[in-house]
Amino acid sequence: MGIVRTAESRRAELEEFHRMLLQTVGLNGRSSGKKVSDDGPLHEVEGGERLVCVTSGVSYLGFAIVNRLLSRGYSVRLALENEDDLEKLREMEMFGERGHHRVSAVMVKLTELESLCEAFDGCRGVFHTSCFADPSGISGYTKWMAEMEHRASQTVIEACARTPSVTKCVFTSSLLACIWRSDPVVDLPPILDESCWSDESFCRQKKLWFALGKTMAEKGAWNVARDRDVQLATICPALITGPEFYERNSTPSIAYLKGAQEMYIRGLLATVDVSSVARAHICVYEETGSGASGRYICFDRVIDRDEEAAELGHQMRMPDLIGGDITADVPVRFELCNRKLSRLVLRRLQCSEDADSGLC
């Protein structure tokens, strides 16, 4: 079924965003100098502030990333694709003298290079979190949207390359860009990590459009980044959950779960809290150039019990999420590995402890 956001649900999202910003640093609070957070040491803020751009900054994941960036002392420019979102932010007095002094917004078209270059101008980094959705399509994501996401990803990275102020980009991909491989799978290694890519032909054959879009978009981003010498890192999160995730992120969630039964029986159905994904983005961003690079699989847990699968189906309002014979013998089960991201996070936590001791 298609999911269409109502005006009421969109306003509720924006009001939640406003509340989060007020909680983070207050309307008039400023963060400057050096401090330490649970993400590790916060570096000196040049000129008192750092500016980054977040595409789809009022989405479910965008909210969490912006909130964490602000808590880390960054200034954030929201790249919005919807005029309605911008107008509602204005109505809520998000900007200007009475608004949040470290948040601004611009309208962009993600497939237009000039529009993106203008949005990125002056920003040190870019967080590309956008995900296209077609409310008229099944599960909100169609083959056409996959093609759009592919083109947009290439344009975003090209805009990063052409914008002198931009030094790096963190790109939100998906675990789905790693897990779908064509049969037979018996010859594949049992450990699935960042080196694995989904098979585009297989995704097309099975009409896994969301997985196809994420795979094409990430590969396109890497191709442009290598050609244009852009510092890029990609985060591949599992199904993003968290407070009210179905109500506030229903279309991507439903699209993600196409093929859920096969993911489940092969040990590949995983979830991750939205706060963990946001933390991973900022951690990788701040470590890019000093050790962080490439792809990072991001998940909190693998759903491997029937009761856990049933609970996810209940949360998704999809009681038949894991339907059919799920007790059948499975020739191959895989093990997801997020060791690369875990090591990076642990290293930053150690650095944070050293900073408290004056060693970092």
Briefly, what is this?
This protein has 360 residues and is of the alpha/beta class. 44% of the residues lie in helices and 16% in strands.
Protein architecture, described:
- There is one protein chain.
- The chain has a single domain (9-24, 47-356), classed as Rossmann fold (3-Layer(aba) Sandwich), CATH 3.40.50.
- It is 44% helix and 16% strand.
- It is built from 14 helices and 14 strands.
- Mean pLDDT is 83; it is low at 25-38 and 41-49.
Q: How far from one another are the termini?
A: 52 Å
CATH fourth-tier homologous superfamily: NAD(P)-binding Rossmann-like Domain
Estimated radius of gyration: 20 Å
Question: Which range best describes the helical content: under 10%, 10-25%, 25-40%, 40-55%, 55-70% or over 70%?
Answer: 40-55%
Average pLDDT rating: 83
Number of strands: 14
Order of helices and strands: HEEEHEHEHEHEHEHHEEHHHEHEEHEH
- Please identify the structural class as seen in this structure: alpha/beta
C-alpha geometry: globular
Q: Which CATH top level class fits?
A: Alpha Beta
Binned strand content: 15-25%
Number of domains: 1
**Looking at CATH, which topology would you report?**
Rossmann fold
Q: Characterize the main sheet.
A: 7 strands, parallel
Strand arrangement within the widest β-sheet reads 5-4-3-6-7-9-12
How many H/I helical runs? 14
CATH architecture: 3-Layer(aba) Sandwich
Low-confidence stretches: 25-38, 41-49
